[in-house]
What we know:
The structure holds two protein chains of two kinds. In chain A, 74% of the residues lie in helices and 0% in strands. Chain A is built from five helices and no strands. In chain A, helix 2 packs antiparallel against helix 3 (31-53) and helix 3 (31-53) packs antiparallel against helix 4 (75-106). In chain B, helix 13 runs parallel beside helix 17. The two termini of chain B are 30 Å apart. Chain B is globular and about 75 Å long. Chain B is mainly α. Chain B has 21 helices and two strands. The A-B interface holds A 22, 25, 31, 34-35, 38, 41-42, 45, 48-49, 52, 76-77, 80, 83-84, 87, 90-91, 94-95, 98-99, 101-102, 105-106, 114, 118, 120 and B 129, 132-133, 136, 139-140, 143-144, 147, 150-153, 155-156, 158-159, 162-163, 166-167, 170, 173-174, 177, 180-181, 186, 460.
Amino acid sequence: MIEVLATRWAYATFVVVMVAGLYMMIANANLVKKVIGLNLFQSAIFLFFIASAYVDGAKPAIVSPDGGGGPYVSPLPHVIVLTAIVVGVSLTAVALALIVRIHEEYGTVDESVLREVSDD
Amino acid sequence: MTDVVLPLLIAVPILAAVLPLLLSLKTTETGWYVAAATCLVEAGLAAVLVRAVYADGRLSHYVGDYAPPHGIELVGDGLSAPVVGLIAVVALGVVAYAYTAGPRRNSFYSAYLLLVGGLMGVSVTGDLFNMFVFLEITGLATYALVAADRSGESAVAALKYLILGTTGASLFLIGVGYAFIATGTLNMVDLSRQLAGAGGGAALYSSRVVLASFGFIVVGLGLKAAVFPLHTWQPDAYTYSPDTVTAFISALASTVAAYAIGRVVLTVYTLSFFEAAPLARAAVLAFASVSVLAGSALAVVQTEIKRMLAYSSVSQFGLVIAGFALATPDAVLGAVVHLVGHGLMKGGLFAATAILAARHGARTVDDYARLGYRSPVVAGVVGVLGVALVGVPPSIGFLGKWYIAVGAVRAEAWPVAVVVFLSTMLTLAYVARLLERLYFAPPEAASSAPSGADAVADGGEAPDSRAPEAVSAGMVAVVVLAALVVVALGFSTGVFETFLDPVLGGVFQ
């Protein structure tokens, strides 16, 4: 167990951050904090991808013209994470815009208050 | 050269989505024309694709000429072509419908075109990570569209949809990550080869990482497709979005997610995975069967029409996923037919009920009393589409259910066969209630209905927000056309078989 944590600490962090994000999304009544939880959840996944690409002692994948000189880190997960970050930022923007709308309409960003207000 | 159609299907709407926003610097309400023209082009491109796939089988395009597995591949085959056709037809129909029904703002049509592009992307991509990106494009556009009428309720529904939808897509991404770590590739065909042990090693099917990736992918996509118990975002999103949007996303958004499940199950994991891990198949079948029963049961107890139809979708997608998970030729054929059929039926039903709501302010089952005599054509459409949804021949609803049932019986999956039968009964329960109200409600019920509606209005809802609106002949024509197509496609088995034959032949050697 200790050995796994010592050698796979990046994956362990991924699990901890992901679960923290999920918990925040579920347990927090504040809509803005829910969105922050969502961001945390997504960031954990990015960490997971980056950790999977890590090779001990390897260089960035900028191959010299004559080739050789490896080992290199796998560039594909990095590209994927870059794309996923863009997707995540757009989602956060839409979510925050919606929260602004909700605040204008109901004057609250608290889920439990919102439920009471919209039930009337 | 027809393979250029594949990138164009995605690029045209996404590029055109910029135009309405640019135009709004000069004019308002020109977005509709851009959207209509783009949807016409899309329909043409889809027709070319469908024809080419029908004639030659699989089409594929390497983006930027980088060959897979390193490059990105776009694929048109028997599985994706019917879905592309459905998207093109529904997008065109809904645009025609939106001419009078609105919304007319330019920004609405930007989101609309973005959604079309995203949906097309999910259908034709041959790469798992690209599927995630297109799912998120679809999601982003859908969240914006759900909130398009700018009411508080729809913003809350959209935010709920956003949080759950993003969680689903993220779970899918984790699954993709696991699959990538296990195999080192993201191309679906290559992935399936690696999983089968093409590199000379043993098949990876029973590896824990692969099992976990399958679980994450199915749960993630199940959330997007609104399968019980992951459906909670969907009734609110359908109920509170503008009627035009409901018709569009009910016909396509979940459909494409269900297609993605079928694509991943059949192309990436394939039947051998199910044979190596029978528990995985049993779990998906159980998941789908519970969804069918729970969705129908929840639909039966609803009084609001839009909510009832939303829960009905939960059950119908359960059927589709059961078809894919049975993974016999009959069941897969049934699943694809039902996927296309459900899109047409649900889109048509939501559009038709929106017309009734616009004309008579009818939004609950009780409001429908004797509307069959006041709006005979539209009520007739609701009747025909409802009966088709139950699965009465001749209609595409019957075909899909029939093949899924036959597949279940041939695979000797008796519980699934029973579930298909029960779902028909339960669907009949809520559709019959609607028909009874439409045509056989006692006359006094009809006269008391308006006062009932007033009582509801006095209960706090703004009465003028649901006031009668304009209904054009074009809107009625669109729903009548939908009903005709649903009935006509009841005779289309041969066509679907020819499409799926190469796919099924490849999967079930």
